[in-house]
Specification:
Blueprint lengths: L10 H10 L13 E6 L11 H22 L10 E3 L2 H10 L2 H12 L3 E3 L12 H7 L5 H7 L3 E6 L5 H9 L4 E6 L12 E6 L5 E7 L40 H20 L6 E6 L14 H10 L5 E5 L1 H12 L5 E3 L14 H17 L9 H17 L16 H33 L5 E6 L5 E8 L9 E3 L6 E3 L1 E5 L25 E13 L3 E8 L17 E2 L5 E3 L11 E12 L4 H10 L2 H11 E5 L1 E2 L4 E4 L3 E9 L3 E11 L4 E10 L6 E8 L8 E4 L2 E3 L14 E2 L3 E6 L2 E7 L4 E4 L17 E8 L12 E12 L6 H9 L3 E5 L6 H8 L2
Parallel strand pairs: 1-8, 1-9, 2-3, 4-5, 5-7, 6-10
Antiparallel strand pairs: 6-7, 11-17, 11-36, 12-16, 13-14, 13-17, 15-16, 18-19, 20-21, 20-27, 22-24, 23-24, 24-25, 25-26, 26-35, 27-34, 28-29, 28-31, 30-33, 31-32, 32-35, 33-34
Length: 838
Amino acid sequence: MCHPPCPLAILAIAAFSAFAAEAPPPAEVKHVQHIDLVHFSHTDYGFTDHPVVCRELQMRFLDLAIDGALATRDRAPAERLYWTAETTIAVWDWWQAASAERREQFLQAVDSGQLEISALPLNATPFLDHHQWRTMLHWLPDELWDRVRPKAAIQNDVNGFPRAGALALLDRGIRYLLSGINEDSGGAPLPRPSAFWWKMPDGRRMLAYLNYSYPAGYWFFEPIEWRRGPVPRAGDTRFRPPRAGDFLAADEAAVRRAHQHLLSRLKSLEAEGYHYPRLVLSITNQWRIDNDPPFLPLGDFIGTWNRLGLQPTLRLTTAGPAMEALERAVGDRLPTYEGEWTDWWANGTASAPREVAASRLAKRTLAAAVSPVWGDTDPNTHRAADGILRDLTLFDEHTWGSSNSVALPYSLDAQAQFAEKAAFAYRPMARAEWLLAQRARVRLAREPEGLYLANTTKLPWSGWITMPASALREDYRMVEDPENKRVVPIVFENGWRPFTAPANPDELTRENTAATFPDNALQQVAQFWVESLPAASIRRLRLSTQEPPPSIPPPATLEPIQRDASDWPTGVTWQGMPRPLFTDGLGEFVSVTVSGFAPRWRARDIWTAAEEKREGLRTEMLKQVTATPVGPASVEHGPYQQVFTQWLRHPRLAWANRRLEIWKHQPRARLTVRLNRLSSEDPEAFFIGCTLPCAGVMPQTSCGGQPFVPFTDQLPGTCRDYFGIDGWVEYRRPEGRWLWVSRDAPLVTFGGPQVLAKRREPPRDVHRVLAMVFNNFWYTNFVGDSHGVMEFQFDLAWSPAEGSSAEDLAETLQSEPTVLIQPALAEDPLVIRRLYTP
């Protein structure tokens, strides 16, 4: 994402442009003796054009780079075109469509060193799980990967990079990471340009280079931005890509002017503390900057530079050789840092809560589909899973919309781009559900009649099995386990009855404002309780029309529940627990908005303010509102759970409801919050809070499967306001472990709504966890106005000592067993083969 040259623009570009406006004084460069220019196209799947057009453009750029490399291969090395493919998606798209002759030309360009393929398929957010990181590093088939031999990874725009990604790169032999952070609404962890050794938990190291923002090389040589628009679509014929002579002209006078400009810039750079003999700069074209083709005349400009003997020397090269030369020159002088590289831009993902929830459901369903309980994963299943993971990885790519997605949220362009993005969440959600059903049907098709439950997680599962009552073809009353003869009753609850008119107002809940089909009709949902369904197992049960005998639930260990004045729980303890599972504040809903004219610009004022003024501006301009109860909470007492439900009132919501299920016989609770956001294009953030009895204890969480402790196990200067996580936070005390799990919202903050705070230290009440469930503060690239009904679910659990990992427990708490009803009638083998087999 590259922004317009205005106060909301890329900070580096603004700085370079401001410097360029000054007349360049005579400059003496003391340290920088050589500059490596790395030329590429920054890949945004959106922003400039619809993602479908972007993917085609990137393939065409690769074609152009190959032709440029071949056309200049007989020139002196300094005059050849060199091009780095920033991402491998374009390479794989191109390779699949290319002829044998064209593939050979591609490989010639690679072998000559004029074309380099970087290691990553896209610029990623911190929301990829460990399966997705493996997919990232295997986007290219192994034979093509081995043939092109990537040397470096590039992560541009995004303000962070998960350690899970770094470890996946190291596993593939990639030791170099070239980062071109866009500091708009974020920042780099250390002053730029600079390099450091990034040490992993297993002791391995990666050389990370903090490049300026990816187009910055242009402003080291040119004082005026050539780009206009600033983001015209590729199909807009009123704008054009630059031609030879538009900038970086190769005649002697132009090159000498560029030389003087460079010396002035380098003198300032050295005055700021840059003392390395080599400098690596990336450079993009100036049509739109993002998603731009190679600038073919660049080799001519550099050829003239070196023929004139200008200093420092200048080389057009690719990412790998530039990083190798940098390591040789300064590798032994670089500092070493450890910790997670958290991302300032992660908050943008919360602009689309439903799509994020769909993507996370898809990941859970896919994990169930490839579980060993169904047997070995055959090649067809593997291919289907790989396709699902690729779509999910594209959803977690950093581009969420057009350049005007917030300014013009309902324009056709903005709607079209986000529709494509959202498809990468909804499509894998549907495909994963179908794949899981196929795996279950094939595995169980020849089993005896019964109702089958499959627990695909690593731990025993307890809870309600819920299904539409219409799935039961007879008047079943109970479920029996043939192995131990244990029976449990089927309980029927009110629920959704499609394609029938509501008989009366009682068949409509308060949130059913459409009033088309009833959602509170009698006996529409069938439920039965399952206790400790074994891990990684399939259990056969029998449905029965007999009336069940009196059931004996597990003995309750729940102690009296503490409540506030509205009867909402403020603390709950089970026998043997030294502290409650949670304290006052569970399910608290808080919004943060911005006061003043053009509120996103006021947010910008806060962000750019000096540290000593920022807190005052936050107090003045940010308005925080907490939801209040509409009335007392209702309470339901059942044999296994006690359930509290309460409606909330908030000025930014049409309605909100929170529901708390408390297990009676184990220290566990589930909070579900449903809300209906009123449409608004103003910036605001929503949070749902939970306070745990762990004051003074630092939380542990994970990103991409790699655990870390927020605030302490981080690179210096990385985001401490919020954290993209796998979905769980754990607190450990000598007397036990408290686990908080988020099903739908993998973005958390601690202590309170840390909006525009730029925290350096942890808050005092770090034991207060808040899920950031919505945030549209961004002024571009993300979703401007997600509104309507949204649901968020959170699980809390306590265990007395060491045991199962937090990751395994979180997975189990969020999971639901797969349910399959197998009739006595035999299935046709043709149906199994042609319909169910993946």
